[in-house]
Amino acid sequence: MSPIVFLTIALIGTTLALLVRPWERVATSIGLAGLAAAFVAAVAMDPSARLEVGGSILASTEYLRLFLVLGTFSGLILGIIGLSIGSRRDGPAVTLGTLGAAGLALAIPDARIAVLAITAGGMLGVLLTITPVGARVGAGAGIRHLRAVVVAGAMAIAATAWIGRDLGELVAQPVVFGLAYLAFALAVAIRFGTIPFHTLSARLTDAVPETGLPVLLAWGPASLAIVGLAWVDSSIAPLSIDVGAERAIVVGIAIASIVLATFAAWLQDDLEHVVGYSIVGDAGVVMLAFAALDPAAWTPGRTWILAFVVTRSAFAAWAAVVRGTFRTGRLSNLHGWAIRSPILAASLVTVIVASIGLPGFAAFGARSELVDMALDGPLQVLVLIATLAPITYYGRLLALGIRPLAVTSAPLVDWRPHRMAVDRTDLAGSARRLVAANRTIGLTLLGLVLSMVALLTSIGAFGGPQASAGLPPEQAIPGETTP
Amino acid sequence: MNPALAAVAFAILAGAVAAVFVRDARLAVLSLAVVMMTAPFLADPIAAASGLAARVLAAVLATYLLWIVVRDGAFQTGGSRLGWPADSLVATAAAVVGFAAHGLGAPTDGPAFASAVGFGLAALSIAPLLTGRDVLRVGIGLTLLLQGAFLVRVGLGGTPSTLEGLVTAGAIAVLGGAIAVLAMAARSDGTAGFELADELPARRRRQTDLRPDAGPADGRSEPSPERP
After folding, report:
1. Rounded CA gap, A267 and A419, in Å?
2. Total domain count for chain A?
3. pLDDT reported for residue A2
4. Which of A50, A115, A219, A420 is the most buried (most CB within 10 A)?
């Protein structure tokens, strides 16, 4: 199946869901149906399909297919959890639109058009900041997000336009190439909300539901990072130009994000901020792929991105289910949560293993390779240890979960499955009662499924490392997967 | 020098100065419409009809969405604190720099006027983006910055392909819609018009509108009595 089918579903689904947004149930249902259809279209996508549209080539790759399959699957689960515990009516539509834009961007060989598509998709995220009460504050968070997306987009557009022509006669090449490289890397950093641009991610975490955070802070920016890595590999890295100063800035951003975001996540007192800063910390590893300035960073960079976005989606889903189950996201009110709900505990442990990884896991190896390529000497060892530091905030969450229960701590929750007698005169009512009785266990299992998918992605299942080693669309030849 | 391109360049910069300067939100939106609708014509050769039509239609759609928010004239936008002569000089100076630095010595595929106007729009967008205190003014700055980036890209890389025109049109329409939604949200909350809140309260509760009866009971939740 051609990628155009996926793109059409995404475009129509997003547009329809936004047109009917006054009717929140209808809008959400259309968004979820669109995500389900997009998932099917992504699974059926032919990874070697090519077609010409408007004077440009659209080419699908195995990596594009896998990115969209995992993205739509994660979005679907997050959307269902959001529908059940409370979210924004535009959540599924924004997810669908963002993934549609990402799909278009990753299928277009021309980076100049790809960054435009990603910028357009990123703008949709402002809809998740609109709140029913205190809309002015939500609008403030939204306009700041929009500013970050547009500024990042403008920087990336300028950088790709600058390099996307014959520069053989240019005199000051190192300066020009260095500035273009820095502009694109900063654009990616801004979109991820890495340190020092973390005010954006912190504000978004204040305003956006847990289930909306991955699409705004991970999936959308990740597509820009993938396009950026391809662009750097084809435009900057092969030239062997000295861009030491610019590279040092990117390295600084990466290290600061890995170290400080982990510390910030450990300090936080509510789950959403832990999720937000955990995304920032992992995005620091993506910045290391930019700092490596080596075509060899292409494969581990994309492998890490794939594992990172799915794992953080699973972590956000877990946080959302915790909030839905215990009616709180404050850590101080969650003493004994793991004792109350063992399946949630299993889900978090799975997320931890997927996130930190073990030797032999694809994501673990990719992260180590990126640190090796980007850094030297003692700093390499220190940063490698820092990438394992998320175990501190995970450990804190687990420790809270097994602490003795207090009166104000996690209430007794109904986490076991229930069987109910079917009333044959009222099948619809029976189904509704069955769903209501099993709501908590259903959500918990959904979170567990997503965390299992994250674990498999981190291990390297679904052909992730092989797909990551494939060429970008501008160089891909059907059947060839070696860079 | 192509006089038609010069005229288009002048119209875009004039529209941008007006959009940044005026306080009447309706005039600001109409001025912005001039920028968005004339910018696609600043290319040599002009883009294919389908791409061009998409850009113009996207500009019309973005303008209409913004017009819905401001048409009653109830609220103003911040406007320029420098005055239009200062804004004009900023735009002119940046345009001269962009014209003179076109391609920085390397061959380009687009007209120098596009680079000039792109630089001018980017310079004009700085003040609204950095000092804007209302949604509409920041949104005007964002639109000018994005249009400026498009024009710099046209100046360096030449006339966009049809697909690029379509994607650009999508970005313009989405940006207009996003600004309109945010502006409407701001003006629907209290009487301060498009003003931004002074600061975000720490640990603000994320409201839900999808399932207002199921808000978490952690002391940070409120039911949602109204739609955004």
Report:
1. 42
2. 1
3. 83
4. A115
Interface size between A and B, measured as CB pairs under 8 A: 237
| pLDDT reported for residue B210 | 54
Any domain includes B180: yes
End-to-end CA distance of chain A: give it in Å, rounded: 25
Range 56-75 of B in CB contact (< 8 A) with A = none
Check B161 against A55: CB less than 8 A apart. yes
| Residue of B124, B210, B221 to mutate, testing the A interface (most A Cβ within 10 Å of its Cβ) | B210
**CA A465, CA A374: separation in Å to the nearest integer?**
20
Domain range holding A7?
A: 3-468
For residues A236 and A340, what is the distance between their CA atoms, to the nearest angstrom? 53
Among A240-244, A249-253, B91-95, B127-131, the least confident range: A240-244
Q: Is residue A475 part of a domain?
A: no
Model's pTM, two decimal places? 0.90
Nearest by CB to residue A131, choosing from B175, B201, B228, is: B228
Percent pLDDT > 70 in chain B is 86
Q: Shortest Cα distance from B132 to chain A (angstroms)? A: 11
For residues A81 and A443, is the Cβ–Cβ distance under 8 A? yes
Task: DSSP for A315-359, please give it.
Answer: HHHHHHHHHHHHS--BGGG-TTHHHH-HHHHHHHHHHHHHHH--T
- Identify whether B63 is part of a domain: yes
Q: In whole numbers, what is the pLDDT of chain B averaged over residues?
A: 85
Looking from the CA of A473 toward its CB, the CA atoms found within 13 Å total 29
Parallel/antiparallel/unpaired status of strands A50-53 and A56-59 = antiparallel
Report yes or no on B192 lying in a domain. Answer: no
**Is residue B173 a contact partner of residue A179, using CB atoms and an 8 Å limit?**
no
Whether A346 is covered by a domain: the verdict is yes
What are the angstrom distances between the C-alpha of B122 and each of A151, A445, B40, B100? 10, 50, 16, 16
Cα(A349)–Cα(A372) distance, rounded to whole angstroms? 28
Most A-contacting residue of B182, B213, B220 (CB-CB within 10 A), to test interface? B182
Band (pLDDT 50/70/90 cuts) for residue A220 is very high
Chain B residues 125-184 within an 8 A CB cutoff of chain A: 129, 135, 138-139, 142, 145-146, 148-150, 152-153, 156-157, 161-168, 170-171, 174-175, 178-179, 181-183
Residue span of the structural domain in which B59 resides: 3-187
Pick the residue with more confidence: A405 or B141? B141
Q: Is A50 helix (H, G, I), strand (E, B) or coil?
A: strand
Q: Is A402 contained in some domain?
A: yes
- Residue B170 is assigned to a structural domain of this protein: yes
* Structural contact between residues A430 and A422, judged by C-beta atoms closer than 8 angstroms: yes
Token reading at A307: 């594992």
Contacts of B208 in chain A (CB under 8 A): 86-88, 132, 209
Is the preceding peptide bond at B45 cis, omega within 30 degrees of 0? Answer: yes
Q: In this predicted structure, what is the pLDDT of residue B218?
A: 39
Complex ipTM value: 0.89
pLDDT band at A482 (very low <50, low <70, confident <90, very high): very low
